[in-house]
Amino acid sequence: MANNVSAHAPSPNSRSAAVLDTYREVVTPEGVALHLPAAGPVPRALAWAIDLAIRMVVLSIVSMVVALLGVAGYGPYLIVMFVVFWFYPVLFEVLDHGRTPGKRALGLRVIAANGAPVGWLAAFIRNLLRTVDMLPFGYAAGLVASLADPWGRRLGDMVAGTLVVHDARQHEPQAAPVGVALAPAVALLPHEQAALVAFAERGPQLTQERQAELADLAEPLVQARGTLAVARLYGVANWLLGRR
Amino acid sequence: MRQETFVQRHQAEWTALEQWLDARAGNARKARAHRREWHGLPDHAMPERYRRLCQQLALARRRGYSPVVTDRLQQLMQRGHGVLYRTPPPRWRRAVEFLLAGFPRLVRAEAGVMLAALALFAVPLVAIFVAIQLQPDLSSALFDPVQLAGFEQMYDPADPSRDLGRDNGTDLAMFGHYIWNNISIGFRTFASGLVAGLGTILVLLSNGLIIGGVAGHLQAVGHGDPFWRFVCGHAAFELTAIVIAGGAGLRLGLNLIAPGQRHRIDALVEGGRRGGLLCVGVLVMLVVAAFIEAFWSSIGWMPAWIKYSVAAALWLAVLVWLFAGGRNRLYADDGLAPGLGA
């Protein structure tokens, strides 16, 4: 683990208030919390299966080439098998920013537990310890560990100090529609303000019915239902955004 | 400050940082080569800009700005964090330095577990060897008759094909076999230490029993000469590598059981880091062993005295390397293989 990063695994009670989330919160040296969305066993198992298929294909191609060479090809084949078995994930994880082809397909990434990119040694250790995660069969130990761990880490991840996270989904940021500003009837708390602005920003991507349905929840605030409530909420959001 | 004003005020800064990350943050060498063609944010300004961004993100969160702003800033920050705190690429010089100095130092630093691993491996080996000399029937309790016949046939002094050794194709095939088989065993010896050290102990004991049993049996039935001539050379690297991998595994298991005044997870991470570094050395040792085993040990016609002198030289080299390597250097313990940083 890089010594220059003072970030440390937070104790369970310092996790964010959103208990149901699988974010791992890491405080960087700058004093700002990074939210790392940890990945659970299912997408990781799928990524592993894809990688396994790729490895099988590589090995069968190599074995076909090698079959033409006779006995002389047997040695190189075993060396290729050694590299593919032990170093395929290490090489990809370090050289492709924490992603093997399978992880790339599933939108996963291995990072150090402090949010930094994974280094050679950490990648080597976490993949060496697959041996233990596979015990007694079919990654059972790894599955139990990742179900018990709040961040879905298998044993190798814990020892190597790494974490598998979901890549941030790229969605274009959209500004809330500009319109009339409307002062809210009561003073709103910060998280309420944030929720309203978030609604205004995401609302246009939803259907009319869904917008109205959501806006109905805010009836006490805007004293209306349906499309009128939607319009009023957009107005309040505009006011909160400072367009007045 | 309202969100819109905030975004308007800092938009240009964020875009500049984004462009810098897109263009300059990938390959450090390429970035150096093209530094004159870059006219955006200068490289030296990046840390400062990154810290400003962190402050802005903290402000945005505190003031409850919407996810459109905070998510974007968080993503930017994550990318900046990755660049600023990435581990330096490994360098050849440092890798050689690690092998010559850092690795022997690390082995000596773990002398306790290394001795334990040596005992777990060597005691059953010697014991079973001696026992079979006294009571040759014992070997049939260890192996079934087909296996015994196989060993005997492999090292039969009367077999004329052994005199000339193998042809090159077979040598290469055996090299691949030793790489795949022996290094995998070495790695598993370390990794299975995570099962409270039990896995490592089992591997060491069983390897000691099997190797001692085979050697004892061949000695007892009179096939000792070709056997010793074959194994003496590569044993220097192979047996020490297995003991070192075992020591690394025991260290890991010990850190799990008795973490001392640390969090168990911190002790495990430390044990894993040291074990991983030891495994890098074990990997190199076993590659050397496989090379010797495939291309030197297999030469059948070589007179015994040459084989035994080379073996003595190899043993001496390994022991000098492990006991003296890195003693003359100012080499901070936590600076072990800095390029490999976990």
The radius of gyration over CA of chain B amounts to 28 Å
Mean pLDDT of chain B: 85
**Portion in strands of chain B:** under 5%
Q: Give the count of helical stretches of chain A.
A: 11
Tally of extended strands of chain B? 0
Structural class of chain A: mainly alpha
Largest sheet of chain B: none
Distance between the termini of chain A: 49 Å
Roughly what percent helix of chain A?
A: 40-55%
Structure description:
The complex is a heterodimer of chains A (about 240) and B (about 350). Chain A has helices at about 40-65, 70-95, 100-105, 120-130, 130-135, 140-150, 155-160, 190-200, 210-215, 220, 225-240; strands at about 25, 35, 110, 160-165. With about 240 residues, chain A is mainly alpha-helical. Chain A folds into two domains: about 1-20 and about 170-240, no CATH class; about 40-165, no CATH class. Chain A has a two-stranded antiparallel sheet with strand order 1-2. In chain A, strands 3-4 form a two-stranded antiparallel ribbon. In chain A, a hairpin with a 5-residue loop joins β1 (about 25) and β2. The longest helix of chain B is centred in the C-terminal third of the chain and has 34 residues, at about 225-255. With about 350 residues, chain B is mostly helical. Chain B has helices spanning about 5-25, 30-35, 45-60, 65-85, 90-110, 110-135, 140, 145-155, 170-190, 200-220, 225-255, 265-295, 305-325. Chain B has 13 helices and no strands. Chain B starts with a helix and ends in an 18-residue tail after the last helix. Chains A and B meet through α2, α4, α5, α7 and α8 of A and α1, α3, α4, α9 and α12 of B.
Question: What topology emerges from the helices and strands here?
Answer:
The complex is a heterodimer of chains A (244) and B (342).
Chain A: E1 23-27, E2 33-37, H1 41-67, H2 71-95, H3 101-106, E3 108-112, H4 120-128, H5 130-133, H6 140-148, H7 155-160, E4 162-166, H8 190-202, H9 208-216, H10 219-222, H11 226-241
Antiparallel strand pairs in A: 1-2, 3-4
Chain B: H1 3-24, H2 28-33, H3 46-62, H4 67-84, H5 92-109, H6 111-134, H7 139-142, H8 145-154, H9 168-191, H10 198-220, H11 224-257, H12 264-295, H13 304-324
Protein name (chain B): Stage II sporulation protein M
Keywords (chain B): Membrane, Transmembrane, Transmembrane helix
Pfam families (chain B): SpoIIM (PF01944)
